[in-house]
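Quick one before lunch.
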Amino acid sequence: MKLRAPAKVNLHLRICGKRPDGFHDLETLMVPISLADDVTVETSIGRTVRVECDNPDVPLGEKNLAAMAAHRFSHHTGLEFAAKITIAKRIPMGAGLGGGSSNAAAVLSALDTIFETRLGASGLERIGAELGSDVPFFIRRHPAWCRGRGEQVDVWDLPEQLPLVLLKPVFGVETPWAYKNWAASKDLPGLDSGEQDLGWVKVFNSLERPVFEKYLVLPAIKQWLRTQPGVRAAAMSGSGSTMFAVLENGADAEGLMARAKETFGPSLWLVACETEQAQTPRSN
Ligand code: C5P
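Model of the cytidine-5'-monophosphate complex:
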């Protein structure tokens, strides 16, 4: 069974404070986007879980979140099976785009269908929350305000679809590192890190503060994007290192990407995509 596993951006991410369990309470608007991996799940008799991926940087062992998803599904349902999970990777890693969480959610949805366990979105969300804070969002694959550590999902229709350009330098950012350094971090002098109002959401990310202090190219990309024609807002997604620009309808995304490469060098990863309202999980 083959599923589309979309990436996400956080149009708004505010950290409300640190919790006794070490996580941080959030208020974040997460939105699925048209950039997606394909995840194929094949089951047979046995107990082994195998992951194959066309990107050699993806860990294939038990540390892979998609493999862990299959094990958690087996644990919760009592079903014994072998699984081969094949991932066609387009979402970069260490990027703040939720690729690993989305792959894991796709595996849970696929297994629920294959075994007709009918756990439903809420049952799958509960298993997903054990795998990562973002996984429940990817079970729904719909724009949502997420709270708690991110696992409490309130679906919400976007009033408009947004054309986006994503820009990622070659390095990634470790999510635990970004959260750990949030409390002690300070705004960079001279950088406007305030909210950018789209009318129905204020584009903002609390995690820019610690991440921008360490990776100075990211605030440079943000400031540069905000001076470009056709850009309504620019911010970092999740814990980075991907920066996104929200474009006006009909803006020249190709031109923006060409100028970004000229300015920040040819190693910058770039893609034009758009927000998605609702995702049908099955791609065929
Ligand atoms: O839940 P997830 O595996 O995505 O979280 C990775 C790490 O990011 C956590 O171990 C924690 O250090 C940090 N985190 C956090 N608060 C959140 C989400 C993640 O501190 N709401």
